Every structure is written in C-alpha cells, then in structure tokens.
Amino acid sequence: MNMNDSPTAPTASKVIAFAPGRCDRQKAHRAQQAHHACRDETLPIAENICTVRSNDWINPEYKHLVLSAPATALTAVAGQFFHIACPPGADEAAYLRRPMSIYRVEPDDERIEFLYKVQGVGTRGLARLAPRDTLDALGPLGQGFRLPAVAPGEQAHVLLLARGVGLATMAPLAQEAIRSGARVTAILSARSASLVMSADYLRESGADVLVVTDDEQTSDVVQIERMIRRVHAAQAITFATTCGSNRLLSTLQRLTAEFGIPGEIALEQHMGCAIGACYACVRPFRKHSGSDELTYRRVCWDGPVFDLQETTSW
Ligand SMILES: Cc1cc2nc3c(=O)[nH]c(=O)nc-3n(C[C@H](O)[C@H](O)[C@H](O)COP(=O)(O)OP(=O)(O)OC[C@H]3O[C@@H](n4cnc5c(N)ncnc54)[C@H](O)[C@@H]3O)c2cc1C
Ligand code: FES
C-alpha cells in the first residue's frame, strides 16, 4: 500500500494492448445484433493506479470504495469489472487479485466506485484502505451489458433483478439505461432491510425501486414472479437482467421466454488471470437458446455478462 499526498493525487495507468479473438458466440452475437452498441475490438485494458478518496461502511457487511482513477479506467461500462490487487490484511495477504464489478463511473470527476462485501482475505485487505492510499486495479475487463435498441417512438423498459452484492453490477446499468431514455424497474432483494443497498441512489437516478426481503418474507420466487408479472402488465418489459442467484436465473429465464424478450445475466466465478489466458473460470453454456448442446466459455473474457437463455444453472 503506498501513500500519496492528497486523495485526488495524480493517478497512473500502464496500458496493456489487447485485441484477442472472441469466442464464436460473441462473434455471432455481434454480427447478428448490429443494433447493439458494440465496443471497439481493441480493448483499453490497463493496470490503473488509483487513489482512494473514501472507503466507508454502508452497513455491517458492505463497504463503498471511491477512487480517483486514470483515463483508461474511466472507459468502463456497466457489467465490466476490474481485477484488484488487494492490499495485505493484518497478518494475511491474498495471493491472487480479486474481481470487482464497477459500481459507478464518473468520467467528468475522474472517479470510479466499487461496492463490496467484506468476506475473505482479499476484501478484508481492501477494507483497510484509507484516503490517499493507492490501489492497483487491472481493467476495465470483460463484456458488459448490451441494451437492445427499441423501435423509434417506443420506450424501452429494463428490469433489473438483483440480490445482495449483485446490485453493484446492476446499478450502472440502471444509469446507462435511464440516460438512453429507458424506463427502469429495479427489484432489490436482500436478507433484511438494513442490507438493501442503493435504493435511494437508484431512485435518484430515476428508477422505480421495489424492495423484497427475507425478513418480511417477500423475497421468495413466487412473490417475485407475481411482482414481475404486475410490472410487465403495467408497461411491457423489453429487456431483463439479473445476477448471481440460481433461483432468480431460472425464474427470469422462464418469464422472459414467455414474454418473448431478451435478457442477460452477470455471472460470478472464482478467477485466476481474468484476461482469458488461464481458463480457471470456464463454465458450460447452451450453444444457443433452447439448445441441448453445451459449449464452454470463460466468464472473465467472454462474459461476465451472458445471454440469459444460454446460461446453465449451477
Ligand atoms: C466479475 C465479478 C464481479 C464481482 N463483483 C463483486 C463486487 O462488485 N462486489 C463484491 O463484493 N464481490 C464481487 N465479486 C465477488 C468477489 O470477487 C469474490 O467474492 C472474492 O472471492 C472475494 O475475495 P475474498 O478474498 O474477500 O474472499 P475469498 O477468500 O475469495 O472467499 C469468498 C467466498 O468464496 C469462497 N471460495 C473461495 N475460493 C473458492 C473456490 N475456489 N471455489 C468456490 N468457493 C470459493 C469462500 O469460502 C468464501 O465464502 C465479483 C466476482 C466476479 C467474478
Ligand atoms: S480467469 Fe483466467 S481465463 Fe478466466
């Protein structure tokens, strides 16, 4: 951990040139979906040396990390992540970097933010960061969400279904969707009301926010399904996203198939390199929607955001 003179001390990045091949699914996806906002194939990935502005607890389990970041880091889009070199803890150190989704990017303020659950050696090290410390964040990495275009004159309606820390991944998508003129409905699920994060931030961004909790016994899949059906009946959902949870995945797969709309999921997987080289993060996927044939993809490089119907449960 290094110290700098001020929380907004100059940041630096060492750019690693990257233009590797994509998996077949992505080449096909990109060819078929020319209406999607495609990113340039030459990816600006860098070892970004960021400076901590703040690193505060927002509830008993989660911290919010705000960093001054160099220009390369500020190109991150919703669904992408950084591979973070976590500083050592009191008497332990994480050998590998840890992947963290981008929670917020504010290029005008040269700022990126993360929301993380303090749970193991890496995040316990992150939790020790103080203003003016520096942090090495490799990225931005992976494929972000691809908001489908809607017909002229129609308004997109994006559903975000997030539980726990999955919210960190979905929050910037809400911002991007609202900026593009979409309506956003966010269903936030948590064990208890005190662990619901970012409801205010999402509301301020313009999203309709619905909260369900285990404590209030409103977070079971039957009630969530009823809620989604009500939301869809009020204004047709045009794109649905979720993350992390198997039971939310299968509910949303079923409903999006019934509604005839596209969807995506952001997956979490333990990672080694996070740049597509070691194959530690490979998972099985359906070759295409409805197919019984499986194919194998790297979560770090081909994802972490994948087509909802191609994703297999775990
Ligand atoms: C793309 C992506 C984005 C992510 N974004 C965020 C985010 O925004 N915020 C956030 O809080 N987390 C996020 N995560 C999850 C985070 O990277 C992991 O939880 C990370 O392991 C935490 O590191 P740690 O050292 O604190 O905990 P670890 O020591 O890695 O332990 C975390 C948990 O994983 C279990 N575990 C450890 N190794 C394995 C293994 N090989 N197989 C199965 N289980 C294992 C441990 O028992 C423990 O329960 C993301 C993960 C991915 C892949
Ligand atoms: S973590 Fe190395 S290929 Fe994905």
TrEMBL record:
Keywords: 2Fe-2S, Electron transport, FAD, Flavoprotein, Iron, Iron-sulfur, Metal-binding, Transport. Residues 45-147 form the FAD-binding FR-type domain. Gene3D superfamilies: Dihydroorotate dehydrogenase, electron transfer subunit, Nucleotide-binding domain of ferredoxin-NADP reductase (FNR) module, Translation factors. Pfam families: DHODB_Fe-S_bind. PROSITE patterns: FAD_FR. CDD domains: DHOD_e_trans. The keyword Transcription regulation does not apply. Its cofactor is [2Fe-2S] cluster. Belongs to the PyrK family. This is Dihydroorotate dehydrogenase electron transfer subunit. It comes from Caballeronia udeis. The lineage of its organism: Bacteria, Pseudomonadati, Pseudomonadota, Betaproteobacteria, Burkholderiales.
